[in-house]
């Protein structure tokens, strides 16, 4: 039985990747950082019904000794580095922390692999945010980078140090340049989930408005369930490499919102409020990926449309909020 070790297992991608690897017969381990909120860390794993099927270890990406201990305990065949301070907007408020986890954390992980599991295959969660202020129509593996946030600058370091360990030490290290991917397990601070949560609240009479920043930005949005398969496929290749993972279609935040409002027969214009405080100090205006290398070499392609995904997310939020409202009524 192959063993996988996942950092960021409590996040959106960590949960879906765990589910996918379990379905492939893997023994799945993950690291969890200490939190003052005991018992909530694994809520996504519980939502997927797999919390009892994975083994969690207490460690932190900023603490090499903790990682070495876990590597020695587990002896992983495959290592997926998904942990990060992953919210772009927060990276202007916490730039040093973002660098420590999202940049230096990657080389700490690569050192842990080199010292404690040199034969393990390594996946790094790189990001389309690295392209930033690009002029090209579609972004591929050969498009130059121009990061626009402390988050994107940190991811660029993580990307290049992964390439460097592959070239310097012959590591089986792959970097997935993933475009935005979402799901019902997406953090509520990200725009798709913020929209589906707010639209569900408006529909249920629990809220009166949806407050957003720049709705002219466009993103290439796919489903996390589809994207974790690409991560695994990268580690099944003979050699490590870099791959763009995207749908090849871009949609504005405005049009994504419209899909959500239409799904519950509401008029977006009645509820949408533009709040200048939510605009970012520097924006990435357009992202549109070219996944042809992943199509060709990995045999991967996105399976879920944006429309289907937004409807799935909105239905999940409607269910969750309806249960919450019913529980509150019983308690009252
Ligand atoms: P999430 O924000 O949902 O998850 C991030 C995970 O990192 C959480 O499990 C979090 O733990 C963990 N983490 C943060 N800091 C540390 C630390 N110091 N030590 C250990 N664990 C830590 O992100 P996603 O699942 O959406 O994304 C996964 C990865 O992919 C991230 O690296 C992200 O930057 C990258 N990415 C994501 C894309 C997307 O659209 N989703 C696109 C491209 C790249 P905790 O639960 O304690 O907070
Ligand atoms: P992003 O995702 O920054 O692309 O990073 P996010 O959903 O936060 O923003 C997408 C776009 O929507 C605009 N926007 C708003 N965003 C948020 N969060 N809240 C708002 O109220 C709002 N109004 C408008 C943003 O300005 C932006 O243009 C995600 C993360 O998962 C990263 O970790 C990952 O690397 C990239 O995707 C690819």
TrEMBL record:
Pfam families in the record: GDP_Man_Dehyd (PF16363)
Keyword NADP annotated: yes
GO MF, one example: GDP-mannose 4,6-dehydratase activity
Enzyme Commission number(s) of this protein: 4.2.1.47
Keywords: Lyase, NADP
Domain NAD(P)-binding per the UniProt entry, residue ranges: 5-313
Reactions the enzyme catalyzes: GDP-alpha-D-mannose = GDP-4-dehydro-alpha-D-rhamnose + H2O
Keyword NADP on entry: yes
Gene3D superfamilies given in the database record: NAD(P)-binding Rossmann-like Domain, UDP-galactose 4-epimerase, domain 1
SUPFAM superfamilies: NAD(P)-binding Rossmann-fold domains
HAMAP family, A to Z: GDP_Man_dehydratase
PANTHER family: GDP-MANNOSE 4,6 DEHYDRATASE, GDP-MANNOSE 4,6-DEHYDRATASE
Similarity-based family: Belongs to the NAD(P)-dependent epimerase/dehydratase family. GDP-mannose 4,6-dehydratase subfamily.
Protein name, UniProt field: GDP-mannose 4,6-dehydratase
Lineage of the organism: Bacteria, Pseudomonadati, Pseudomonadota, Alphaproteobacteria, Sphingomonadales
């Amino acid at each position: 039985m192959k063993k996988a070790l996942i950092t960021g297992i409590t996040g959106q991608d960590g949960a879906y990747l765990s589910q996918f690897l379990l379905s492939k017969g893997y023994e799945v381990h993950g690291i969890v950082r200490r939190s003052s909120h005991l018992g909530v860390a694994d809520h996504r794993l519980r939502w997927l019904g797999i919390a009892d099927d994975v083994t969690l270890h207490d460690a932190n990406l900023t603490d090499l000794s903790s990682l070495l201990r876990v590597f020695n305990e587990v002896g992983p065949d495959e290592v997926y580095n998904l942990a990060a301070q992953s919210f772009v907007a927060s990276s202007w408020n916490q730039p040093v922390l973002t660098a420590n986890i999202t940049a230096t954390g990657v080389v700490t992980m690569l050192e842990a692999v080199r010292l404690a599991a040199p034969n393990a295959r390594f996946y790094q969660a790189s990001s389309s945010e690295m392209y930033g202020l690009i002029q090209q129509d579609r972004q591929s593996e050969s498009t130059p980078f121009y990061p626009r946030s402390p988050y994107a600058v940190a991811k660029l370091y993580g990307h290049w140090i992964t390439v460097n360990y592959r070239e310097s030490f012959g590591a089986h290290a792959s970097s997935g340049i993933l475009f935005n991917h979402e799901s019902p397990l997406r953090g509520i601070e990200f725009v798709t989930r913020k929209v589906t949560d707010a639209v569900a609240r408006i529909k249920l009479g629990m809220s009166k408005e949806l407050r957003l920043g720049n709705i002219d930005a466009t993103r290439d949005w796919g489903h996390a369930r589809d994207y974790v398969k690409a991560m695994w496929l990268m580690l099944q290749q003979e050699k490590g490499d870099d791959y763009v993972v995207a749908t090849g279609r871009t949609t504005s935040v405005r049009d994504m919102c419209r899909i959500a409002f239409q799904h519950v027969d509401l008029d977006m214009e009645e509820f949408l409020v533009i709040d200048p405080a939510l605009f970012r100090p520097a924006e990435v205006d357009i992202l549109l990926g070219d996944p042809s290398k992943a199509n060709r070499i990995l045999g991967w392609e996105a399976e879920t449309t944006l429309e289907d995904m937004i409807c799935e997310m909105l239905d999940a939020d409607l269910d969750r909020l309806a249960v919450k409202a019913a529980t509150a009524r019983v308690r009252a």
